[in-house]
# Entry
Amino acid sequence: MTEEQAYFRRSTIIMLGAAIGGFAIEYALNLFLARTLTSPDYGDFKVAMAFLAIASMAVVVGGDRAAPRFLPAFLETDHRGGVWDYVRTFLLVAFALSAGVAAVTIMLSLLIYGGLDPQDHHPLVVASLVAPFAAVVTLLGRVFLAAKLVGLSQLPWRIVYPLLLLVLVSIAAFLFDELTGVDVLWIVMIVALIVIVIQLFFLFRHQLMPLRRHPDIAVPKQWIVASVPMMLVGLLQIGMSQTDIFMVELLSDSEAVVGYFGAATTTVYVIVLAQTVGVSVISPLVTGALAEGGDAVRRLQERGFRLLFWLVAPLCAGIVVFAPFIMSLFGVCYVEATAALQILTIGYGVSSVLALSPLWLQFAGKERATMWVTLAVFLANIPLNAVMVPLYDIDGAAISTTVSLFVAAVVLSVLMRRDINASPWPVGSAITGLVIRNAR
# Structure
């Protein structure tokens, strides 16, 4: 077994285990919150968490996504000061932009709701304050990933983060007469700070980020130039998947269905986790494969596609078949979102299986092409939701998102075929790999 194969197998096992364990904990948390909070309050909480996901990615301007592209060069040398330069640059950017996001969010909330008690405002206000800390958690996790310390890149925020959140939320529900979405978001901030402390401890223990500057780095302009398009792509991808819940919030006649739809999007997130496992395993190897070119690129793409296919396909089949039972776990009324869950599963499934296409394009210097394709599909998704939600309510939102994810995945795959000269969908290889593995 080669070193690359050993890394591939070890990383897949660790990431898959962390993803499954983390999702189980997070799903238990959402079941608990759906039954503890009122349906409207749970819906507001899910909207705030969607906003948090977008804001935390925006404020770090793609520094987390670009880390596997730039940090290995520093980590492979004895002088690792460049790691601190990189992290320091994006920390300063993240907290500066977060201050602006929080200021705008708070001012708008004061204009709409008035008063100074956070409980009188939408949970979005607290989510804007949590954003920089969530961004730091992601950024530090990518440093471990760039160093190929897969366990430390995944466990703090995949397992520790949701487990601490579940424990503290359960304690808070026991101590207080009434728990609100605003209360939960304050707890999210506390947990993020704890995880950051854990990450810093291991970064310093493994001497991955000595607090010294790199003598040859003057202005890290190349980092920002490369990271911003990556951020925009990621932001648009998240925005495309989250537009539906915002549109349901704005256009639906019933506030309760926002909570129902939030439960469906929470469930389908397991597919995104499976996608994240595959992409995270592949990403540290992409730069080397591109440098070798030809067969190295095709070999890594086939292996990555095979991994994603067999991670995602069984999940999608299970969700579609057992959707009514899954939604009933949130409560009897949540079964109303069964069809929406099944429709979303199709869109997320196709998008996840083809998720390596934008990764190859971004690492090959085609960030702008990826960004423009994703932007076009994102913009088209908004009027599509505006038409479909009034007609079909949450099912219309699910259809809009599925169409958007499908179109984006196919177009990016075609671009990959053209620019990288490797098949984005080597289905034959995926099936052959399974047959060979079973024969062994």
